[in-house]
Amino acid sequence: MNLNKVFILGRVTADVQLRTTPTGAQVSSFSVATNRVWTDKGGNKQEEVEFHNVVVWGRQAEIASQFLSKGSLVLIEGRLRTRTWQDKQGQNRKTTEIISERMQLGPRPAGQGGQSAGTPAFKQQESQPAVESIPEINIEEGEIKPEDLPF
């Protein structure tokens, strides 16, 4: 059995680049930085940053280009792929990238898109209940009907 699965949670290092392939498919690429902090044997705090190239296809590529910008927090679930190509000088090049299968956006910084705390739309939302009530399904009644399911 084989498994090629990657999870990274980090910050986008530059604005997302969105492109369209000749067949019309949307693809975006960006880099995500992750940090590792530890204490060495001498008691000194050490920090290491790793940069990951991420490729996102389809509708998620459009969402990434629309909502992610430099510094945005993002969780990527995907697989590793190493590809080889020749550059303009004829040199063979290799890169390893994460092909995103799922992407979860982090919280948006205040003042970035959407409504700010001082706008009337935000104040109107405050009066609405924060949590939607979850319908209850009683299994003891017998058979579960499809119309009883909340999804």
SSE diagram, text form:
Layout: E1 6-12, E2 17-20, E3 26-39, E4 45-57, H1 59-67, E5 73-86, E6 92-105, H2 120-126
Parallel strand pairs: 4-6
Antiparallel strand pairs: 1-3, 1-5, 2-3, 3-4, 5-6
Folded structure, characterized:
The chain is mostly beta strands. The protein has one domain: Nucleic acid-binding proteins (OB fold (Dihydrolipoamide Acetyltransferase, E2P), Beta Barrel). The protein is 11% helix and 44% strand. The chain has 2 helices and 6 strands, in the order ββββαββα. It has helices at residues 59-67, 120-126, and strands spanning 6-12, 17-20, 26-39, 45-57, 73-86, 92-105. It starts with 5 loop residues before the first strand and ends in a 25-residue tail after the last helix.
Briefly say what this structure is.
The chain is mainly beta and 151 residues long.
Features:
mainly beta; 151 residues; OB fold (Dihydrolipoamide Acetyltransferase, E2P); five-stranded mixed β-barrel
First and last CA, distance: 34 Å
Number of helices: 2
CATH topology term: OB fold (Dihydrolipoamide Acetyltransferase, E2P)
Structural shape:
extended
Number of strands: 6
Mean pLDDT: 80
